[in-house]
Amino acid sequence: MFIQIEPQSDIPIYSQVKNGIMEGIVRGELVPGDILPSVRSLAGDLGVNMHTVNKSYHELESKGVIRIVPKSGAVICPPSEGEIPPSRLDQISAELRPIVVESMVIGMSEKEIQELVASIILKVKGE
């Protein structure tokens, strides 16, 4: 698993760690049942504070991406079976809405936004 941290980025480091792990899952580098490195180990590898990695892990756990097992570590969870709960869809929609609105305000068309999302999906998958 490779996570690139950009200290000068406007994106908080804990979010970069969280996003890096999720991208690793999407690319198939991490699969359900895989155990993530310990907080201490990953923090050392990335050169970041342990509390930063801990926050990333807890956010991933709250989203159902990992399960933290005391004294065993953080384990990648399988994707949800069946439909995604409406509450989770509402949360994702609320997070995406400001970005879509900003895109429209700067003059992007619906088609351009859809094409941008499609290109991001391809990049995340490594295609």
From TrEMBL:
CDD domains this protein is in?
Answer: WHTH_GntR
Q: Sorted alphabetically, which keywords does the UniProt record give?
A: DNA-binding, Transcription, Transcription regulation
Name a GO molecular-function annotation: DNA binding
Residue ranges of the HTH gntR-type domain?
Answer: 11-79
Q: One matching Pfam family, short form? A: GntR
Q: InterPro entries given for it?
A: Tscrpt_reg_HTH_GntR (IPR000524), WH-like_DNA-bd_sf (IPR036388), WH_DNA-bd_sf (IPR036390)
What the entry lists under SMART domains is as follows: HTH_GNTR
Extract the PANTHER family matched here: GNTR-FAMILY TRANSCRIPTIONAL REGULATOR (PTHR38445:SF12), HTH-TYPE TRANSCRIPTIONAL REPRESSOR YTRA (PTHR38445)
Please give the name of this protein: GntR family transcriptional regulator
